[in-house]
Amino acid sequence: MKKLILILSITFFAACSGGLDTRNMTAENLFHKGKEYFADDDNLEAQKMFDLIKLQYPASQYADDAQFYLAEIDFKREKYILAAFNYNSLRRIYPSSEYNKQSLYMRAQCYYKLSPPYERDQEYTLKAIESFIEFQGTYPNDSLSLEADNKIKEMREKLAHREFSIAELYKKLDDPKASLVYYDFVINKYDDTQYFEDSYLGKVESLLKMKRIEEAQNIIMLYDKKFPTGNYNQKLKDMYNEVKAIIE
Description:
Elements: H1 2-15, H2 27-39, H3 43-56, H4 63-76, H5 80-93, H6 100-114, H7 123-138, H8 144-172, H9 176-189, H10 195-209, H11 213-226, H12 233-247
Helix pairs in contact: 1-3, 2-3, 2-4, 3-4, 4-5, 5-6, 6-7, 7-8, 8-9, 8-10, 9-10, 10-11, 10-12, 11-12
């Protein structure tokens, strides 16, 4: 049955290759023809050539090339989930391939492209960060590691923005206990983002709202140490003194 499916598949691709008779073409011929189509942005015909290599010549020296270009075609067509799968498949099936480094980076790029605005679910953002970190761990001295670092920072800003915006929403809803959870999340996980300092302000406001005066004082002292020339030094002290005066 498997042999029958293989024969039917090969016959189908040969019949549908734009009039090109591929039945007697070698793996090398198919690969070079596929690259020509790829260079001309004829992705459909290029995909047929590379699929034929995988079907007819799975053990040839061009099999990993075909797998890589199939992933590249998916990326060009913005089919990022499928592209990520194909890049990963190359690394799994052909662990000695010359395309392994590029495939690892491009898989991360796929998830980066799939990363949505901050207010939506961030599953792909987390996958992108994880993949870029894996690339840096595998190729620490590669020039792409710096680019990966910039993308990681960009996506960490997005994740921090999401948590901070939730904290601010609970603040507007007058739920300081809930807002405190998310301010703490930013403080503990995203100290390299622009939302780190603002979260200290939000945390103190939440603590004072709940009349947790001593805790608020400790956080203000910690803020002064971390941000000796911060944006909120005087504001935090004024807030603290105001609430303390009311209570006393």
